[in-house]
């Protein structure tokens, strides 16, 4: 018992160190956990690898597929376009709309998907409203964290705590049950940003924005200048056709072929829109009307159906300047959006009723999207964040090890000695405070997986319901606001906002404390001990 207990804490400590230092890829650190649990005899081989067959992992993978379908069909781009119109409402109106939109979108397509979809929109809208991006992007990321508490599928953490609650003798949470605490958190986040944002957010000027703010209209304006050609974004980009810019590869078989605008490509029958020499400056370039023998490094604009463009840009003969898939995603309401929306509504309805297991709903939705030709099988597989899936699958056995080795009971006993056994609120405070601190340096998913068995042991020792402990873990798990490495979305806005490491805690600390208060004192009111 003692040997396995020491081994479990040692493995956990090494994993936390690996996550926090960020010098080793997170996937490698995560894979170390099940291997070490088996090698030290804490768990048998089957239990050490059980996370890879857990329904939670498969369900989370299907959510990435659904998110990809929403992006590919332009539904997320359409939402972004509607929000961008608020740039004329001034700073307060724009910020309120972006924060609210980020929260709602996170509830539908996940935190990462929401921020990825709205980041370019926020940068463009901020520029048009005369606002520096740094005043907009941290609120965008934090609002997505709050919005993830609106639905079961808002974040993997919600799915995990729901399953743990059921396994510990409680019950699964309903699809919209999270909104009982999530909605107040979204409102508090919005009020804090609007009221104190000017004082708590830094004014930073990013060194460069790269392609963050690019959409088809911006891209076409750039092409008009560099190719000196008359181009119409509305005609070039539709739900069925688009344009990509490619460079002729150094050893391309196209070198020497005479090409002029209006001709078609050799393989995919795409139309050449414009071309220019590699050594032409934008100011010196001109629209080419005569045939031009292609050379390595020449730039060419080609137009055609999206599927053909996707195949063409994968050819070794050309190098795509920008992925055709990303350009297609920026076209609002593209091909298949009605079918995708129908699948989304059906999936939400099934999840809300609770009559079908979430993993079955996810599999049905992913299968329907493929059968309805909204996305292809390879596209769906590429959409899955395998780093996240492997991270969760590899760390699930750590939760089992905490229970079987007695580590969870040991931590619970130590915390009870400190807090006393009289008040479950103090026990909840201790669990949530530790979770909040750990969640700033390692993945909130990893943190909750480790702390969940401790919280269950607490609830069982105090002979109270496990529901408030699990919901509180979800709340503080969403409060990863103090560092840029706490969540992927915090890192996502770092460079576009020109932020520094210490910029996050200024707004993040008061917001995290509010989440902690909600977890410890508000959650037990809704889900009593």
TrEMBL record:
One Pfam family, short name please?
Answer: CitMHS
Q: Which Gene3D superfamilies match?
A: Regulator of K+ conductance, C-terminal domain
- Keywords attached to this entry: Membrane, Repeat, Transmembrane, Transmembrane helix, Transport
Give membrane topology per the record.
Answer: Multi-pass membrane protein
> Which regions span the lipid bilayer?
28-49, 56-79, 99-125, 137-161, 173-194, 388-408, 428-456, 468-487, 507-527
Q: Where in the cell is it found?
A: Membrane
The RCK C-terminal domain, residue ranges = 231-318
Family matches, as PANTHER family: BASIC AMINO ACID ANTIPORTER YFCC-RELATED (PTHR43652:SF2)
What protein name is recorded for this chain? SLC13 family permease
**Gene source species:** Promicromonospora vindobonensis
